[in-house]
Amino acid sequence: MEKLLGDGVKKVFLTGGAGFIGSHVVDMLIPQGYEVTVYDNLSNGRREFIEHHLGTPGFRFAEADILDEDRVAAEMQGHDLVWHLAANTDIIGGVEQPRRDLRDCVMGTFNVLAAMRRTGIVPVIFSSTGAVYGDLCREVARSESDGPLLAMSTYAAGKIGSEAFVSAFCNLYGLRGWMFRFGNVIGARMTHGVIFDFINRLRKDPSELLIRGDGTQEKNYFLVEECIDGMAYSYRHIPMTEDKPCDVFNLGTGSVSRVVDIAAIVKEEMELPDARIRIEGTRRAWPGDQPKVHITVDRMTGLGWSTRRTSDQAVRIAVRRMLGKE
Ligand SMILES: NC(=O)c1ccc[n+]([C@@H]2O[C@H](COP(=O)([O-])OP(=O)(O)OC[C@H]3O[C@@H](n4cnc5c(N)ncnc54)[C@H](O)[C@@H]3O)[C@@H](O)[C@H]2O)c1
């Protein structure tokens, strides 16, 4: 089997590596013989997600902040590739604390890129989001070339700003960037999102499940290992050049799941057939929410990569994993 990042890379610097997606990246890279430094301030990540690697040769954990540019550069020295996942992922919290997305996402990404420039590291994989499409993707599935990108949350604004800095650094300073606008990534160890919320609500009150919004929300869900595989596939197969030093790819499945269907799957897997579903609210579940997110994944499909699972299949698997059933 081809190694995730090929043979040209040996040492990976992984920001946000103690988080949901990042800890799965570690689980996939370490068995393949890569050396991995996780750089994470544990603001949302958890030590327990990575502690099974502590003591493993080739694994290092730096508990530190990407806002500390000198520390990032010092820890980054000697790596072959930067996989930048660290960001504020509390989208709702951004409404009350909009500076967090400016700081942790835009400034943090700037610092990571500046540290790459200082240390001479060239390739960066960056996790953006389908949220950059804002209301554009409400009814029509949007492709990478669609715009204008008008953010509806500070989270999306932070990602649009970060994409712009990745692109600028690639053009000005010889970096090479692979950027990905994800659908909703799901699996074990989720710490946020609709599946996480539904399970917790039903654990608190097994008689009723509250759905915030008007129940018509639908988004694209795909499994965390497929997300990581998609990023790595693109890195291996799409070379960046002086002419085109960075690019952006939508990443997810071609299908969507409706929130009411997710609720039904959670009820079924938790074996709570009598739980009543209560739908409460308006079209937007919270300020900045995108009730419908449709992105096209034709570009990745054209390049030879697609998910193996549909959105609904992925939801069921993720629910089962969160419940410890698989
Ligand atoms: N999960 C999804 O559905 C999804 C969808 C689109 C994009 N993304 C992006 O993928 C990336 C990973 O997301 P995730 O779901 O694993 O979220 P997560 O919150 O579990 O992971 C983010 C990690 O970054 C760390 N972090 C945050 N600010 C930091 C800082 N200033 N310095 C150092 N570390 C910091 C957190 O402690 C956390 O471990 C994020 O950039 C997120 O925006 C995720």
Attribute tags:
single chain, 326 residues, alpha/beta, Rossmann fold, UDP-galactose 4-epimerase, domain 1, 36% helix
Q: How does this model look, in words?
A:
The protein is α/β, with parallel strands linked by helices and 326 residues long. The chain folds into two domains: 11-182 and 223-251, 3-Layer(aba) Sandwich (Rossmann fold); 186-219 and 255-322, UDP-galactose 4-epimerase, domain 1 (Alpha-Beta Complex). It contains ten helices and 13 strands. Strand 5 (123-129), helix 5 (154-173) and strand 6 (176-182) form a beta-alpha-beta unit. Helix 8 (259-269) packs parallel to helix 10. It is globular and about 60 Å long. Nicotinamide-adenine-dinucleotide is lined by residues 16, 18-22, 40-45, 65-67, 85-89, 104, 108, 127, 129, 182, 184-185, 191.
Number of helices: 10
The helix content is 25-40%
Distance between the termini: 24 Å
Q: Tally the beta strands.
A: 13
Helix/strand/pairing category: alpha/beta
Give the rounded overall mean pLDDT. Answer: 96
What strand order characterises the main sheet?
Answer: 3-2-1-4-5-6-11
Give the helices and strands as they follow along the chain. EHEEHEHHEHEEHEEEHEEHEHH
Beta fraction: 15-25%
CATH topology of the largest domain: Rossmann fold
CATH class of the largest domain: Alpha Beta
The distinct ligands, each listed once, are:
nicotinamide-adenine-dinucleotide
Residue stretches low in confidence (pLDDT < 50, at least 5 long) are none
Can you tell me the number of structural domains?
A: 2
Task: Tell me about the largest β-sheet.
Answer: 7 strands, parallel
Cα-based radius of gyration, to the nearest Å: 19 Å
* The named CATH superfamily of the largest domain: NAD(P)-binding Rossmann-like Domain
General shape: globular
